[in-house]
Every structure is written in structure tokens, then in C-alpha cells.
Predict the structure.
Amino acid sequence: MLNNTFEILYLAFFIAGSVVRVIGVAKGKSWWRRKSEVVENRGTWTEKLFLFFSFLGMQVIPFIYIFSSWLDFADYGLPVGLSRILGWSGCLVFAAAIWVLWRSHIDLGRNFSPELKIRKEHKLVTHGIFRTIRHPMYSAHWLWALAQAMLLQNWIAGLSMLLAFWPLYAYRVTREEFMMCDRFGDDYRDYMGRTGRIFPRFRK
């Protein structure tokens, strides 16, 4: 139940991250209204299923834990000192996740799409945070998942996003890169050679 400082901080970060996402989608000029501009769609029902599981791990299970006592039996049970270190470290990780998410939306602009789709005006973005990371939004979600495990110190609610996001990431990231290679050819292959997938690759 909502009686823990780190649960309250988790909610605050969650709201902040959600606001960043909503603003990012809005600045993308309502992608869902431009279906006629889609020239390639590689979305599948398997992807939608993984998205649903990710939604459960990222939102439903954590909120069940925070607003009820149903999952309390699975708390980590850490010593107070270690729990505080873990929780405050989780705040830093969550702040980093939100910054990476915000920066990703800023740099993508109208090129953002939550689905595996290519539109007519789609451009290859290689500036800003994309200069060193090809998929910073995935990076942001991995950081978010790690922060959730640190702030919601429960074996079910804390780890639910880590476990639920992994299948989506594993299924989608390679398909996304194949799609980008087909669209942008050698430009994207060269870009892959000088960037990291979710961790920066700094050039000399």
C-alpha cells in the first residue's frame, strides 16, 4: 500500500515520464491521423502481444503493488540502510531514464512512431543523442525498468517491467534495424557501424 517514500517517488517519476511521452507524441503531429502517409508497416500481432505484456509490467502490476497489499508477501526484505541506498540510487536512474526519453523525442521530432512503420517523409536521424545511440528510447525503457526494480522493492512489482520488456525488445529491435536498412540502405549500415545499439559508442 502507498506508505513508502520510494513508492511515492516512483509515482512522481512515472507521471513525469508519462508527460514526456504525451508531449513527444503530440509533437509528432498525431501519427495515428496520418495512416495514408505510411509506406511500410511491419507491425505484427506478436508485437502487439508483447506490447500488452510490457504494459502489464510497466503500469498494471506496479500500481497493484502500490495501491494494495496483495503483493507485499514478495517484498525484498532488505535492511533499512541497504534499502535506502537502493531506493535513492533508483531515483537517479529514473531521472536518467526520463532525460534520455525526453532527449529522444526532441531529436526525433516528427519521425517518432510507436509502431514499426515508415512514412513518406521519414528521415534518418543521426544528431543529438542519436549520434552515439541508435535506439535511445529502448535505453530509456531499460533504465526505467531498472529504476522500477530499485524503487519498488518487491520481487514481483519491482522486476515485472524487466521481465516483460525483454521479449518486446528482443523481438522488435532487430526487425526495426532490418526495416531501417531496407529504407535507408548503406546510410543506415554506416550509421550502425559507428553507434551502439542501446549504449553509447564514442568515436575517437
Notes: The domain at 41-193 is CATH 1.20.120.1630 (Four Helix Bundle (Hemerythrin (Met), subunit A)). The mean pLDDT is 90.
